[in-house]
Design a protein that fits this description.
Blueprint lengths: L15 E9 L5 H8 L5 E6 L18 E14 L2 E7 L10 H5 L4 E6 L8 H9 L4 E6 L9 H8 L7 E4 L4 H27 L1
Parallel strand pairs: 1-4, 1-5, 5-6, 6-7
Antiparallel strand pairs: 2-3, 3-4
Length: 201
């Protein structure tokens, strides 16, 4: 059953819809992640990289990248018959960061996608979600040929609080991405419960 349609004899179920952001540096795999898991054809706002953008778009480590997201990526995945996630991939370059406030409105949580070859590129996303108290997990995108590091090393390098989950993933693999999205939902629920407990005590 999806979106109000149900099996014969069963009442329709109205799914809860949740908004998840996918953020990170330029070329880290955000568009790939959304496309790998979305059950609809993803909305993409990609444009070709140009010579004019070369001074500001650092393609070191991602020399094969020829397009860039200029607004957002959008996809949808049904985790259960009563739980649907809407995915919003944020643009990675600094000149498009003004859009993040709009995209983050009403978000349950976020995935900060990280590439160990360019780990510093996700600092801005980590800082953004920390400052706005938006629950997030870090998904280390395991590119072919990229060096692998223990999760604790990545945590130290990003100066993350102990409660922030760090998960290994492959942005091309649907099941791997689903695990990360489930991790976001679980982490956001835990953070929400802790905040409510703090308010009532």
């Amino acid at each position: 059953m999806i979106f109000g349609r149900s099996e014969r004899g069963k009442p329709p179920v109205e799914p809860v819809t949740l908004k998840i952001l996918v953020a990170g540096g330029f070329g880290v795999g955000k568009t790939t992640l959304v496309g790998a898991v979305s059950e609809i054809r993803p909305l993409r706002t990609e444009e070709f990289l140009t010579e004019a953008g070369r001074p500001v778009d650092d393609t070191t480590g991602v020399e094969g990248k020829h397009t860039t997201t200029v607004a957002m990526d959008f996809g949808r995945i049904t985790l259960r018959e009563d739980l649907v996630l809407y995915l919003f991939g944020t643009p990675g370059q600094e000149r498009f960061w003004f859009m993040w406030d709009e995209l983050s409105e009403g978000a349950l949580g976020a995935v900060v996608l990280a590439d160990t070859r360019r780990l510093e590129d996700c600092f801005a996303a980590v800082d953004y979600f920390e400052r706005r108290a938006i629950p997030f997990v870090v998904g280390v995108n395991c590119f072919e040929g990229a060096p692998r590091y223990p999760v604790q090393d990545v945590r130290r390098a990003l100066d993350l609080d102990d409660h922030v989950p760090v998960l290994l993933t492959d942005a091309r693999d649907r099941e791997s991405v689903k695990d990360v999205l489930v991790g976001v939902v679980q982490h956001a629920m835990l953070v929400g419960a802790e905040r409510r407990q703090t308010v009532t005590t």
